[in-house]
Amino acid sequence: MPKIALKAGSRPPWVGLAAAVWVQIASGNSYTFPLYSATLKSVLGYNQQQVTMLGVANDIGESVGILPGIACNKFPPWAVLLVGTVLCFLGYGVLWIAVSQTVQNLPYWLLWLALCIGSNSCAWFGTPLLVTNMRNFPLSRGTVAGILKGYIGLSAAVYTVICSLVLNDSAAKLLLFLALGIPVLCLAMMYFIRACTPASGEDSSEHVHFIFTQAASVFLAIYLLSITVISTTVSLSGTVSYILVAIMVILLMSPLAIPVKMTLNPSKKLGPPVGSSENLVGSTQIDPLLTPSSSATYLGSFHEGEDSSDVETLLAVGEGAVKKRRRPRRGEDFKFREALIKADFWLLWFSYFFAAGSGVTVLNNLAQIGVALGVDDTTMLLSLFSFFNFVGRLGSGVISEHFVRSRTIPRTFWMICAHILMIVSFLLYASSLNGSLYISTALLGICYGVQYSTMVPTVSEIFGLKHFGIIYNSMGLGNPLGAILFSSLLAGYVYDAEAAIQGGSTCLGPNCFRLTFLVLAGICVLGTILSIILTIRVRPVYQLLYAGGSFRLPQSSNHS
């Protein structure tokens, strides 16, 4: 792949992270489907099955990110983001034309395809943000992943506030905002998101900056939850609404305070990075004069004797010598096809698939679950899930980063904990006890966020950062597959069967989803078993990667 120029200095990575927060919020546009799905049904005359299939199109577009994963290793971040802006404009533009009835009688297949294209912009926005920032902060992968995934968890609440307080709950205005406003925002921010020279080692100021960013996101989450509750219970004037939205915008800008502070109060410039920083941006160039890090030595001793036939020999080439090509080992950079043949890849894939599939099933049917259990206004359920989903995403990044550094506990251990709590959550749903609906929704939101945010750095630590984009996005395929298998087929079939018994199209009572919840609990039992096996397998790798209490970049395997 072509060599990507690195931006030097300690400030540019933080400018890029601040810009990434805005684009990450924009990349949550797929979460807006519940805000305009009812309008699609009423204005275009669709039945519930047709609307459900549009929801599947939304999930497919959001989660299919193989192409942006490949593109991240071949093109600079701005080019990948540019593709996302075009897809967002085209996809949501067609939906706006249909909902506003600017053009009437558009075929159903065209709207299905447009929704796929529009929601696929999420992958083209989110992938370069995650890949670039994790390469810019390679020693704090869990923290960075938690922050970025936390903000995308808040995006649903941000869009809800904008739709209700600014756009007057108009689906047509919302789709126009998605078609025009989001591309303009991304065009303005893409210049600042670039590959930078990573820090040479641990920096106490970096830790403080991350704490500030996390605290700002928590404050934003509390603020969004508060104004959502207020706006649903009290009628607000136009002036007050705009003031509340302006405060939200200021809070979204808070990460920019870090590079501003670094400009006004510059600190001592960091030295050159140790190890091969080229590996972080995909270059295959290796300087033989660089001294390997201590973990490279540890990893070498760990893999000694793993395969006696894999003894490295030197082949004379011209005046120099090169190492014989070999397959990478855990902790080194894997190509996608090399990762596919590893048991760790499939253990992680199925573990995440079981969690994501069961979680998205509840999320897609949360409104119907609330109605079935006697909750008429399900807005609070959606807000509750969104808030605690953010808590799980951000909190898992902080907690997993602390324990992996202090006790070398693999991040997959927290996937085990999340699976177990998801089992408890589904059993609470099935029990239909008084108050259990809100408790189980909050608990599931946390676990869903933990699963997603933990999977991201785990992929980078086991399979490396060089081809992280495509490997990470292949894990995300669990979302649309889960939506099809568990939501459309399982939950939809059980719901319709019970509704038929009751003699109507709407199902009421705990039996509407009880069987679904019990099946999902069983699925999470399988996910727990797979996560335990994976954790046992990768524990020695984490003990070596985090020897000494901080992450060490392993020596390149030179297999590109």
From TrEMBL:
- Topology class, membrane: Multi-pass membrane protein
Which residue ranges does UniProt annotate as crossing the membrane? 78-97, 109-131, 151-168, 174-196, 208-230, 242-260, 345-363, 369-391, 412-431, 437-456, 477-495, 515-536
**Ranges of residues in domain Nodulin-like:** 13-260
One GO cellular component term of this record is: membrane
The residues covered by the NFD4 C-terminal domain are: 340-543
**Superkingdom of this entry's organism?**
Eukaryota
Query: Where does it mainly reside?
Result: membrane
The UniProt keyword set, sorted, is:
Membrane, Transmembrane, Transmembrane helix
What PANTHER family does the record point to? MAJOR FACILITATOR SUPERFAMILY PROTEIN (PTHR21576:SF97), UNCHARACTERIZED NODULIN-LIKE PROTEIN (PTHR21576)
Name the UniProt record assigns to this protein: Protein NUCLEAR FUSION DEFECTIVE 4-like
Organism name: Juglans regia (English walnut)
